[in-house]
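Q: Can someone sanity-check these two? First one:
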Amino acid sequence: MDISKYLRPKAARICLFLVFFLVCILQQQLFAQNILKGRVIEYETEVPIPFASVFLPNTTLGITADENGNFSLEIPDGNYEVLVRMLGFKSATFSIKTESLPAKGYQVQLESDEQELDLIDVEEERDPVWYHNLETFKRFFLGTTINGQAIEILNEKDLLIDNETVPGLLQVDARNPLILENPNLGYQIEYLLTEFKYNPKEGTVFYGGFPLFTAYQDLSAGKEKRIAKKREIAYQGSIQHFLHSLYLGISQEEGYLIRRLKRIPNPNKPSPSEFEAARNLYRSTRSQAVKDSIESDVFSKSNLADQLEILDQNELDPEEILIREKNGKVFMKFEDLIHITYKNEPMAREYPGAPFENLNKTNQVSKAFLTNEQIELFFNGSYMDPFGLMVEEYMAWEKVGDLMPLDYTPIISEKK
């Protein structure tokens, strides 16, 4: 939803910060405080909307507006999405940069939502197909890591699961935000699911949404220590950790090895037009010798990979895929793909590609490519345009079950 017409910034101020190289100072920088404030009103009448929820997706940061629709929230330096929602109104999202927050705040106008969904009762029993599709959704949304398998969806019957509208495509929506309990990482996650599509034929999964993390409170010292360790493990090797270390210029120290990767059409596999011509000839010929030749030279190659990968064995200097501007902005830019090896943790035993032996000697390997010419990176490991960077293999295997909030405090190496 484009809400630019509903946003009325009134002033701006610039927050400057210095980058220090000591770990403790870097962590303090992450939590430098800025004030996100404003007022939530109804679009048509401009009457204040009391008690609307205002939060920063992918963080633990959120607040409820007061009875006059006013809100004020301290947030760390960075770039964030803001989501504002209230029952009976359409939710609104917009992007902010803490370096240019309006001094007088935002005025956010919500449109009323009179749509009434004619849906089955939440408590009505579902058929076996629904439960089968639910398990598929969990596998590709929560993930199959130890953390993903431990998550419980408290309101799973709020899910709208559809495998009939588009044949061969599983689509999932939800009538309310999903309430996810992640006991391993000590978070309850309120996840506003906006889209989920799984195409088993193509092997593709696409989902998006707005998660809000609430950390467990009143834990024993022992439990808190165990959860802190599990959070650190989940963070290490993640796309968030990788981009955070790239931003700081310490990805090699943090255990990442980057190489260039190219994909080219497989010259040994006939093209679709060649397959079609071979099929036509096979059907029309009476010569067994010709048929045998077609089977040997064409049909036998149908299972070959469509593409071949060419991996440059030389380690890439991370700065070669970064653009650092004088104003402090950092962009990632590269052609083809990059091959990312994380050396500080072995593959998890649950990973589909994990070997049966010598698991502790097997590094985590991922691949990434840009859908845009370049993307802007931010200090906290986030980046502009959530679909501008796509990952494959290990980083793609870790899904919502291993997701960490952007305001998580990482333990990072001292920059050399």
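And here is the second, same format, sequence then tokens:
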Amino acid sequence: MGEYMPPYTISNRMLELVSSISEKVGRITSHKDLEAKPHLRRNNRIRSIHSSLKIEDNSLSLDEVRDVINGHMVIGDKTEIQEVKNAFAAYDEIGKINPGSIDDLKRIHGIMTYLTVKESGDFRKGEEGVFSGDKCIFVAPPPNMVPELMEQLLNWVKDYEGKVHPLIMAAVFHYEFVFIHPFADGNGRMARLWHTVILYRWRKIFEAVPLESQIEKYQQEYYDAIAKCHINGNSDFFIEFMLEIIDGIMDEVINQISKSGANTSEYVKRMLTVMEYDVPYTATSVMEQLGLKSRDTLRKNYINPAIELGLVKMTIPDKPNSKNQRYVKI
């Protein structure tokens, strides 16, 4: 058996996008730009989880996902709540995952699908197809071929790390993984997480880049790109699509950092520091932690500027002076 190589061809457009993304990554001068802003990193992680699950028809809102992750009571479907807990635990493993390891792949799938899927952490035993309504648009390879196909794909990731640009490798892996459809359930979630894992190995900032939120925004185009590659027999169209997606989300992250950096007063920075946890705070509790006596000073110098910058939101925005008002970091 010859050396396995997924079918794709590098185009000029791909090279332009790789260059653009690399330049934008460089503008975020180091991981410290995001390390210094834990509220941004955590918020982006929650957005990633919410979007990846929403693509798979999980109905929980962003606020409900945030509440589940923060250990608050959420009234909803038990399976959907468990999916959020599982995804949070799986994303927490990003820094420990070897993207070329079958053992790691199965282990993380076991975390991602804990208590929600019968074949959790194991390759599928049955036939699988992808449907659009009642129409089958794609039939996955038979289950007996899955172990060998996944071994080939993961060996390619392992052997070509450092030889194929991670931005290209992550997109090729993502498409080939979806094509093989190795698990009975959770393939989309795993493909998107592994995409981030491969990029994280290149630049650690990708741990805090909500790639999934951009995919969700262009969800139909995402499925269309995959379908087009099925027809063409290579991942070229999907590579370009994913590079466009990443190029766009990098602009958003750069904007986030600048908004919460240069334009943020020392007052707001201090308040974000004392609002250490992603939970609702009363005005009184924030004042106490800041050592303030005046509620007017709190509103004028701290709360209102933070709300204008999109760094803090009110829990009851239509009643700003409500006695039940709370403030949450975004």
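A (reply): Looked at the second one. The first strand starts at residue 129 and ends at 132. The chain has a mean pLDDT of 92.
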